[in-house]
């Protein structure tokens, strides 16, 4: 029996969504404070996350899993766009230049575990990442483009959903699909719980990146202050 999952997911993850937006890294990002080294680390971590999720989704779609197959929208897939961005930031040898962070590795392990043991819970991760990217992607793209002084879409392919013409219409179709999934309320509750776990894994990645960002900003402030001292300033 199908349940109204879309609305329940939206309401059931509101608190987690707010908490994620208030992490230091995201708060700085939204204010236009974007540092290249930290940003490209985010892109590389997301590459590992999406590679894992899309690998599992494709497998489950091929196996015709009744809950995962309906949401297996190829138009949402991000691995290829992330590969293009990584090539821009790290060069042609990008695969040998990047490595997964501890927090992203935990996130990837969770995705594989859920996909292998309780595939229907993958819906929670799918909703959290893809709909979040689709909803706020253009805003984040504009911020990153300005902050990093990027030209065109270079380094910003992740935010481009070229196979989705009308985002509003697509999200309506996505919600309709969620509401028609062959699940009961018990499974719906478990999916919502997993979606909140997905937010937690994302926040752990942001916290790790936040440490990198603080270190970089600290060096900038230090260099600024020492420069003033070298010029004869008495300020400390």
UniProtKB/TrEMBL annotation:
Q: Which UniProt keywords apply?
A: Heme, Iron, Metal-binding, Oxidoreductase, Photosynthesis
Instruction: State if Heme is listed as a keyword.
Output: yes
Catalytic activity of the protein: heme b + 3 reduced [NADPH--hemoprotein reductase] + 3 O2 = biliverdin IXalpha + CO + Fe(2+) + 3 oxidized [NADPH--hemoprotein reductase] + 3 H2O + H(+)
Q: Does the keyword NADP apply?
A: no
Q: What is the enzyme's class at the highest EC level?
A: oxidoreductase
User: What CDD domains has UniProt attached to this entry?
Assistant: HemeO
Protein name stated in the entry: heme oxygenase (biliverdin-producing)
What organism, scientifically named, is this protein from?
A: Prochlorococcus marinus (strain MIT 9515)
